Amino acid sequence: MAKRRHRGMERRIAGERMATLFRLAETEALHRRTERARRYVELARRIGMRYNVRVPAPFKRSFCKKCFAFLLPSVSARIRVGEGRVVVTCSACGAVQRYPYRREQRARRASRARAQ
Ligand SMILES: [Zn+2]
User: Which pLDDT does position 110 carry in this prediction?
Assistant: First the structure.
């Protein structure tokens, strides 16, 4: 008989392992060991793909989508804000990622209006 697999448990463990790997990647990036950090990011992504688990939210924007370098502001990434978006430039390959923050601005305006 085939070994019974518990999907939910597998995926929960996969998520925990990914978080651990991202934390390791962060430490390596902090010590400017970029290749080791990249390796951890790759391993985490591979676990995610295998078990169909998303990258944990806190780390979603923490690596380069092109070369998988761990992006640490001022160490391995340049962060600029303006015109309703955050621009993240990877120091390793120069890839640029843009994240909108209009929604946050709108939410802030709305809450301010409510307060008055
Ligand atoms: Zn990159």
Answer: 82
